[in-house]
Design a protein that fits this description.
Elements lengths: L14 H15 L29 E6 L5 E3 L2 E3 L1 H12 L26 E6 L5 H27 L3 H9 L5 H17 L4 E3 L6
Parallel strand pairs: 1-4, 4-5
Antiparallel strand pairs: 1-2, 2-3
Helix pairs in contact: 2-3, 3-5, 4-5
Length: 201
């Protein structure tokens, strides 16, 4: 009787093909989540043709030092008070042109929401978490005012309408209906959040 030498061989010629097909399958079917990041518009490369004069009273300055302290309009302020202060500035309505604003009409503050600009400046040593928290409070001030007006006009919050409008799974008929509503509320309180160059001190 003949004796077999060694272990039986396995034909592995097609294993590379199978591995390659599995790799393609996983690449095609896997979804990779990407971070949205901060929604900010960079200024245009070329300055505008017309020289725009911005009054100092229409600029709400927020400075963050390296210790995380806030200097708002040249006065120290707690972080929990920032949102309300920003809202009061945005809807001040000093020139009386804003019919929906509920501000005090202080002549030393912003004329109307269209002219109001929030300027944020931070130190290079400012903690990133502090920077993001301040950003959230300032954006939250815009969203609070927009929510109020959206509820008055359309009976629902702006943030909900905007999220539904930006959702790619929303039917096109619903998105078309939301487009004008979202744009109208955004124009009532345009988000003009400017970030000045960071300081090295």
């Amino acid at each position: 009787m003949a004796r077999r030498n060694g272990a039986p061989e396995v034909n592995a010629g097609s294993m590379a093909d199978i591995a390659f097909l599995l790799l393609i399958f996983f690449l095609v079917t896997t979804t990779i989540e990407t971070d949205a990041g901060l929604d900010r518009m960079l200024p245009p490369m070329e300055p505008p043709e017309d020289n725009v004069i911005i009054k100092q009273k229409n600029i709400f300055t927020v400075n963050i030092n390296k210790n995380g302290q806030l200097l708002v309009e040249d006065e120290l302020m707690n972080l929990q008070d920032l949102r309300e202060a920003a809202k009061a500035f945005l809807e001040n309505g000093a020139d009386g042109s804003c019919t929906y604003c509920k501000g005090r009409g202080d002549l030393n503050s912003s004329d109307n929401p269209d002219k109001a600009i929030i300027s944020l400046k931070n130190d290079r040593e400012t903690k990133y978490s502090t920077y993001i928290t301040v950003q959230n409070e300032l954006v939250g001030a815009y969203n609070d005012l927009r929510d109020r007006e959206a509820e008055r006009l359309y009976g629902q919050k702006f943030t909900k309408m905007e999220a539904e409008y930006l959702n790619p799974e929303t039917p096109s008929s619903v998105r078309d209906d939301l487009k004008d509503k979202v744009k109208r509320v955004q124009e009532m309180f345009p988000q003009k959040l400017s970030e000045a160059e960071t300081s090295t001190n």
